[in-house]
Amino acid sequence: MSDLVRAAIADAHRREWARVLAATVRVARDLDLAEECVQDAYVSALDAWLRQGVPSNPGAWLTTAAQRRALNAHRRAAILRAKLPMLVVPDAPETSDAFPDDRLRLVFTCCHPALAREAQLALTLRLVCGLSTAEIARAFLVSESTMAARVTRAKKKIAAARIPYRVPSPQELPDRLDAVLTVVHLVFTAGHAGYHGGDLVRPDLVERALDLARTLCALMPDEREAQGLLAQLLLHDARRATRLDPDGRLVLLEEQDRTQWDHAQIAEGLRLVRSSLRGGRPGRFALQATIAALYTEAPTYADTDWSQLRAVYDLLLAAWPTPVVALNRAVVVAMLDGPAAGLALIDGLAEDPRLAGYHYLPAARADLLRRLGRVEESRVAYEGAIALCDNDVERAFLTARLTQLPPQRDAGR
Amino acid sequence: MAQYLILIYEDETAYENADPAVSEQVMAAHNRFAEQVGELGGTLLGGNALQPTPTATSIRGDVVTDGPFVETKEVLGGYYLIEAKDLDHALEIGKLCPAMFGGVEVRPIWAFE
């Protein structure tokens, strides 16, 4: 019985945390108080559900319990009126729903542009995903005290500067949504590419990002960029099982066993790509998803539709002109027009300060130089990429490539 | 409602070298801004333009020195004190604040109760 209840609570933590907290924030009008009340509600659930059984709607039970705690705290505080600024909660039309869904308010508040990107990430993982500060600190390889300070600073700013707890107006929505989707994408990237350190994939972060993207799609069914994001994440993650060989070595897309990909997940991703492209000019997340789809749909790497891929990259570069997109496009150009053409584009990007420290640039250069037989230059580029790479798995891959280069030639002397 | 200070940071050398038409344009923009704050549902509580930084005198401890407190390319050249619903509202207003040769910073006023 108690195992069953514990499982139900763990499940409710995973599924309902954001909804319960979001609804409690509206009553508590203070992020810290709301968090405390929700945590208390989860603790009290253990005892109550053991006695009364698991309620039919655990989320609603937890919300009621947490909101009641918040109201009591306010009654107590009213006596010694706290001087802290209250969160600005604009009046919303009262809904008859006993368990209203405030998750979008919470997400948009966490990803407000007045907060630094790293604070947006930390707040989203903490408040929307319910991760502890220790877990977030581990994910981003900073000390727990650094992460705690980051979260506290962000919460203070929300209160002191009066960042409102609301969903942005329709005219603000495109920009604000872009910030939210970017944060979810960063959570995924941190999990998928393992940013730094030993593991290539942190499945917990990947799962959180997929959950967030699914939630955003469900809450904003008309937002094609949200669909594009989810599609992109599903398509990338569908290849998870084949990205490493049994010895933990990196396997490039061209060498992956395509029969081992998660084809159900790919089918879902492809459906979402089509839907994200329908109706008007596609945004950058839809275009990125289309690129992932073109790579995934090809029966073999060699059969990838490179010219179509270049066309989509051209659209993406116009919609979202970043040097990373230009770099990826150069790799596709190299497949179509030969390594020399790709190399010329990459060399044009090498001076961009935004790519300084980005190890994929020297890595891509090294690969093209290798294919052109310019062994010495390739060696130097691989060494540069290895020096910049902070992921052990990728560094091992680059080192292997470096040692596979033909021995140093006499360069015709 | 809450109060925010809009601090205007600009490259003041740009004004030294600007022709008179630019100054007129800037004055007109500031007059227009004063109207826009109200149109957006905010309140303009005050504001001033500051003399250029060569007129500034700084005091640190007992030491009095010529010039602004911090040497930067873009310097504080003026401010507005506004009242707005929340940060989003204040930013909406701040976006309209003229700052042809720089930008603005929006800071909440610390209200002591």
Largest interface: A-B, 15 and 13 residues
Globular, elongated, flat, extended or rod-shaped: what is the shape of chain A?
A: elongated
Which sequence of SSEs, written as H and E, runs from N to C of chain A?
A: HHHHHHHHHHHHHHHHHH
Q: In one word, what is the shape of chain B?
A: flat
Q: What's the pLDDT, averaged over the residues of chain A?
A: 90
- List low-pLDDT spans of chain A: none
Largest sheet of chain A: none
Number of helices of chain A: 18
Strand order of the largest sheet of chain B: 2-5-1-6
Determine the N-to-C terminus distance of chain B.
15 Å
Assembly state (oligomeric) = heterodimer
Helix amount of chain A: 55-70%
Major sheet description of chain B = 4 strands, antiparallel
Commentary on this structure:
The complex is a heterodimer of chains A (413) and B (113). Chain A is 66% helix and 0% strand. With 413 residues, chain A is mostly helical. In chain A, helix 2 packs across helix 3 (58-79), helix 14 runs antiparallel to helix 15 (339-349) and helix 16 packs antiparallel against helix 17 (375-388). In chain A, 39% of the residues are buried. In chain B, strand 3 (57-60) and strand 4 form a beta hairpin. Chain B has helices at residues 12-17, 20-39, 87-96; strands at residues 2-10, 43-49, 57-60, 63-66, 75-84, 102-108. The longest helix of chain B is centred in the first third of the chain and has 20 residues, at 20-39. Chain B is flat. Chains A and B meet through loops of A and helix 3 of B.
